[in-house]
Amino acid sequence: MKQTATNKTLVVFLMCFMTFMVKHPSAQSAGWEAFVAKYRAALPKHAIVGSSVAWVENGAITAKAHFGLRDRAANLPVNDDTIFHWASITKTFNAIGIMQLRDRGLIKLSDPIVKYVPELRKVHNPFGSMNDITIKQLLSHSAGFRAGTWPWAGDKPWQPFEPPSWEQLVAMMPYTEVEFAPGTKYSYSNPGYVYLGRVIEDVMQEPWETYIDKEILRPLGMTRAFFDQAPTFLRGDKSHSYFVTDEGEVEAPFDFDTGITTMNGGLNAPVSDLAKYVGLLQGSADAATQARYDRIIKRSTLEEMWTPVVPVSAGVSMGLGYFLEAHGGRDFVAHSGGQNGFISHFYVDRASRKGAIIAFNTQTESKRLGDARNTRALDAAMRDALVEHLFAHRY
What we know:
The structure is a single chain. The chain is an alpha+beta fold. It has twelve helices and 15 strands. The protein has helices spanning about 5-15, 30-45, 90-105, 135-140, 165-170, 190-205, 210-220, 260-265, 270-280, 285-295, 300-305, 375-390, and strands at about 50-55, 60-70, 75, 85, 225, 240-245, 250, 265-270, 310-315, 315-320, 325, 330-340, 340-350, 355-360, 360-365. The strands form three sheets. A nine-stranded antiparallel beta sheet has the order 3-2-1-14-13-12-11-10-9, with helices on both faces. Strands 4-8-5 form a three-stranded antiparallel beta sheet.
C-alpha cells in the first residue's frame, strides 16, 4: 500500500524523535526511563537538532537513546551509525599517549617541554625560564599558556577555522607570553595540548594521528573513529552541526578541518566507538579483557592520571588530562568537548565504574534567551539527571 504524503511525514517525525533502547535489565529500569523522559523533554526546549546518549557498563552500551536529525537539510535522523565530533575529549587520548611514553621510559613528566619542543624557547616568560615549564604542567593545564590557539577571534569567512600548520603556531611564539607562574593554578589551554602532541611526534618520529591510531584506537577496536575530516565511506554518517543565535539557527561548516589543533580536538566517532574507550577507563573484571587494556595503558597509570593536581572550581579538580568531578556525592572521571556546534561529555563513576556518554550537534549562543537556550546549561542539567536517576543507583 502506498504511503500518503501525510503518512510519510509522520514516519519521518517518528524516526527523528523516537527513543532507541537496548533490551537489557538496566535499559528497562525505572531510572533509565525517568532519565530518557527528561532528556526527550529538554532537547526541543533548547533547540537541539540532534543528539545521542548512552549508558555504558563493562565497555558495552546497555542503554541508549537518539533524538532528532544528523542532517536537517536532508531530513536524516540520528541513529546508531551517526558520527559526532568529540572536540576536546581528544585531549584525553593525547594524555594517554604521553603516559604511554612515560611508562616506556622514553620521557619523564618532570622533563621541560622545551626539551622536545625547542621552538617554545621564543615564548616570553616573565616568571622565569622556559626550562621550568614541565610536561606534567601541560597535562594539568597549569603551565600558564593562553586558552585559544589563535590569539584573536578568527571569525571572518576567509580565515582558517584553526591554524592549518605547526609553522603558524611557531610564528606566533615570539609574540606569546606565559600568563601566570607555571604550576600555580589551573587555566585551560588548547595550544598546550598541541605542544604535548609535538612531544609524541618528536619522540616517536611519526605523525601524532598515526601514533594514536596504532596505540589506542586500533587496540580498542575503534574502527569507525578518525581524526579531522571524514574518509569518503564514512562521510554520509557524519553529523552536521548547528548554531542557535539571537538571529536564528544556522548550519556550521560541515566536515571542517581542525588543522594543527587535531591534537587537542580532532576526534570523530560514533557513540559505539567512544563506548569502547570508556570501557578502557572503566576497566574489566574479566582477566583477559583487563590484560588487553593493560597493554594499552596500565590501570595504575590511569589512577595516577586521576589524582588531583590543581583545583578548577568547587567540586572539580584537574588531574593529568582528566577532570575529576564530584556530583551528588559521587566522584567522576570526566571530560567535555565543544567545537563548531558540537557539545559532548563523558562520565565514569569511580566507585561503580558505570559510565555515560552524551553528545549534541547544536550549540546555542543566544544571550537574549539565556540558559533556556544554552547547550552548556542543558549539558549540566543532563549530567544532574544522569546522577539522580542512574549513577545514584546500582544495577
